[in-house]
Give the backbone structure.
Amino acid sequence: MKKYKINVISDSAFTVQGHGVHTAYTEHLNGLKKYSPNLEVHTNEKNLKTEIVHIHTVGAYGIRFLLSKKCLVFVSAHVVPDSFVGSLVGAKLWYPFAKLYLKWFYNRADGVFAVSQEVADQLSEMKIKPPVYVVPNMLDTQTFSNSPQKKASARKKLNIQKDKFVVVCSGQVQPRKRVDSFLACAKALPEIQFIWVGGIPFKRAAANYNEMQKVMQTAPDNVIFTGVIKHEEVIAYYQASDVFFLPSEQETFGIVMIEGAAAGLPVLLRDNDQYKITFKDWYLSAHDDKGFIEKIKKLSQDKKYYAEAKKKSSQIALRYDTKTVMKQINSIYDKALEKNK
């Protein structure tokens, strides 16, 4: 079998981490090594002659690889212009420029991986010319697998009471994620422990930095903000929890939902048309804080309701497991390589 070289690019390998794009990059890299026997996998190697370059981040570092026309270039579209609003400082002011830049960047690729149908639709509106493939983020779900023994061990490690009902969220602390809704639920349900895994990795470049810092410092006693921690440390928080809850307004995909499902947790999200396409009916949803509070309370009290929600979310883990998604990715690469001969 002939082997082809692929160079996977992400400046998150040596800059800011603690965000979903970096997780997607590492999962892609690991998936290639495990499930792509005809590919010799490299990452962030300069001046390397390869058949494929696959770029995950759209900053200046990726441009030198993007403009290389000696090989096939794929780009994963993790961000669209709307992703910046509520995430970075002054995004509404430079939104038009971001749109032009992303259009220029994606149009230089030979193929674009859209992480959801919503992203694919936005790329179409932006007049992106290369082929667009809807390829979701993926996760080696076995890494997050859970059991009563693992749960007990995680709780002991994190100093969480055995009988406490725990709600976990994972992501950057930013307005777009609706931290306010998370805290509103915590205030209404003081008997439940709420844990937000994540912090502000982009520091003062993040939207509403001072406000978000104050929010974390003045959170109710039943709320823990872990700050930015290593990805391998995140796993214990999922394993120690009972429910995954993300009240975010906008996500291009949201790999954290898969993480929650892989840990065997019911998944609770904001009612959002995009989620219905990506996650079908495999999750619970609510329109507002009142609805979230009711759902969390019922999950903590109704064992049958909890078991049904847990069974539903297991479908998310199954659908977006690395092995499943890598079959699609390998097929795209194989066809492109054959066509490029």
Q: What stands out?
A: The chain has a mean pLDDT of 90.
